[in-house]
Amino acid sequence: MQIRIFDVEHGGCALVSTDNGKHLLIDAGHNSTTGWRPSVYLPQNGIYQLERVIISNMDEDHASDLHNLRQTVSINAIYKNPTVSGEAIRYLKGQNNIGPGIDALADMMNTFRGTAPAAPDLGGITFDFFWNDYPREFDDENNLSMVSILRYPGLNVCFPGDMEVQGWRKLWERQDFRIAMSNVHVLVASHHGRENGCCPELYDYGWKPQVTIISDSGIQYATQETVAWYRARTQGVTLNGKVRRVLTTRRDGRMLITAAPHEAYVEVGL
What we know:
The structure is a single chain. By secondary structure, the chain is an alpha/beta fold. It has one domain (about 1-270): Metallo-beta-lactamase, Chain A, CATH 3.60.15.10. It has helices at about 40-45, 65-70, 85-95, 100-110, 165-170, 175-180, 225-230, 250, and strands at about 1-5, 15, 25, 50, 50-55, 75, 80, 125-130, 145-150, 155-160, 185-190, 210-215, 235-240, 240-245, 245-250, 255-260, 265-270. The longest helix has 12 residues, at about 100-110. It is globular and about 45 Å long.
């Protein structure tokens, strides 16, 4: 199993390749500086079908290439916070603020019919999904992010979208969520490492992921100010002979997590 985390600036895009030859995409952001897009990368690498596309957050930086992606590859199923409809996405964004990626997401919510079975064989990978309800609990896109925990023997990876502290705390009221987070090995930092995604309660019971990954670009939105905060709450992994606790796409570029049952390692700059 492999997880490729791409450098898409202050956005999100990760490709999961399963042991049985299937592929999933977690977010569909692109890099406006380099021109990198998943809609181009996937066909260039012989990938023409995605078992799932998971959109963790309904902001453009997590879906900015979705409108192109659905033209170049076959998508069997699309996942996002199920309490937010296509009409609600348009309402939340407003007609003047919706980008082409989120516009495509809203359209797919109304017209898309996937072909994948409810529980496809993902080569030993399973997912736990958690979200806050719209509009009962929250009415902002960040706290309506869908937290996705990818599980593989010996490796659990959390993709939380842009969840902010208030949303984390609401989820933290659930025992099943607390249990699910307690054995996460790799945390992709919420909201690209911004301070409003740093929730101390997640670490109350001694949980420390082995590595924290921040998807960010140049200095903006105070993301660089939280590296020390995450470093103090992360165990660390040995990478190129050094112990690293926090990795950033800004500094390290693309990342590759390779796992066999009960064994995993990370590479950067690929």
